[in-house]
Amino acid sequence: MTFPNAHPIATRWPASHPDRIQLYSFPTPNGVKASIALEEMGLPYEAHKVTLADADVKSDAFLALNPNNKIPAIIDPNGPDGEPVAMFESGAILIYLAEKTGRFIGKTATEKAKVIQWLMFQMGGVGPMFGQLGFFYKFAGSQIEDPRPQERYINEAKRLLNVVETALEGQDWIAGDYSIADIALGPWLGALEFYGAREVTGWDNHPRTVAYLERFLARPAVQRGRLIPSRD
């Protein structure tokens, strides 16, 4: 049996096209980073739906690929050193795919450093803080009577939106040219609408950010990638 079907994950999600990149994901803000990148880069891939239920992400099959039990994860049967590559963590996957294709990561070392800087801003700031905002504003945390957790993440989301708004002055994309930093940031900015948190975070007070998200969502590859894998 050839890789990736030799990998334990294939016991639950076998590859029909083992010569392609295998994507194990679900259409969340983190999950669609990988599918959007694959669509933008035109890489052949096969998508497998891994739901957020424990039966999927905590299964032995998935944990064999990602011990941190989070989507997305990938297997590239055609790694850069002639060997298959298995990867988890959405930011790491974006860097790997960008370096594999030479696209969306800057043309010079300085540009690459700037792209990775803004990618890390999303990974360390926008993603975790917006995720906590969603938990305390829309989901189970909204039932907590103490107002401080909700206030903390609303205020932090406002601060991060101000950072984005300032960075976008005079440019269309967060690091200059369109890059993996935008592929990471765009889905999380869009999550504020899903959380019903645009008004409380002052979304409409950030016109450059509003226009930025509209540009991002208008890209055909983004429109395709946001729906992969299907929730059905």
Automatic annotation (TrEMBL):
<feature type="domain" description="GST C-terminal">
    <location>
        <begin position="108"/>
        <end position="232"/>
    </location>
</feature>
<dbReference type="InterPro" id="IPR040079">
    <property type="entry name" value="Glutathione_S-Trfase"/>
</dbReference>
<dbReference type="InterPro" id="IPR036249">
    <property type="entry name" value="Thioredoxin-like_sf"/>
</dbReference>
<dbReference type="InterPro" id="IPR036282">
    <property type="entry name" value="Glutathione-S-Trfase_C_sf"/>
</dbReference>
<dbReference type="Pfam" id="PF00043">
    <property type="entry name" value="GST_C"/>
</dbReference>
<dbReference type="Pfam" id="PF13409">
    <property type="entry name" value="GST_N_2"/>
</dbReference>
<dbReference type="InterPro" id="IPR004045">
    <property type="entry name" value="Glutathione_S-Trfase_N"/>
</dbReference>
<protein>
    <submittedName>
        <fullName>Glutathione S-transferase N-terminal domain-containing protein</fullName>
    </submittedName>
</protein>
<feature type="domain" description="GST N-terminal">
    <location>
        <begin position="18"/>
        <end position="105"/>
    </location>
</feature>
<dbReference type="InterPro" id="IPR010987">
    <property type="entry name" value="Glutathione-S-Trfase_C-like"/>
</dbReference>
<dbReference type="InterPro" id="IPR004046">
    <property type="entry name" value="GST_C"/>
</dbReference>
